[in-house]
Amino acid sequence: MKSIKSTLRLVKKNLEKFSRLKNCNIKAALIGGQAIISQGVPRTTMDVDLCVVITDKNQKEIDPENLFIFLKQKLLDFNVEYKPFTNISDPLKHSLIRIAHIEGECPTIDILFAHYGWEIEALENAEDLGLAFPCFSKPYLVAMKLQAGGLKDEYDILNLLSVMGQKEKEKALNLSKIVHKDKRFRKLKMLQHS
User: Against a cut of 0.90, is the pTM above it?
Assistant: First the structure.
């Protein structure tokens, strides 16, 4: 299997090509397991999750389907699927492009398209940790995990809290209010202290 780093470089190269071809701006950052690992939390993951926003020169968002068509044409060794946001019960409410190598030689890549203002803010403040893409900072990762709502997500939040400073925890609390998950966040914060 090819490394996550080489897979990230491949995706970055193609996002840059798309940006030049369409004369648009792309902001992308790691989210999910790889971002959590990069933030100092021991964890395993077999895939790569990116949060992306694509805008034209007037800051108007570009339809994710345009990137899907481009990637489908360029990544011939991959199955490229597009799942527009349609499921109201989806906790994250994102359109998604999933890229999976036909023979399983690379990690699967999920590209989630930013849906909320706080996600755009997270992209603008993403931290360069020496990878192909910057990473959501710890408070924004907590917000994403609160939105996702699974047991593994709660475990990730507890581990993130263990490596966060006080200001980061305060920012995470503010974000938890924005995503309407502050009760859950407080409960997890109390668990982390016990």
Answer: yes
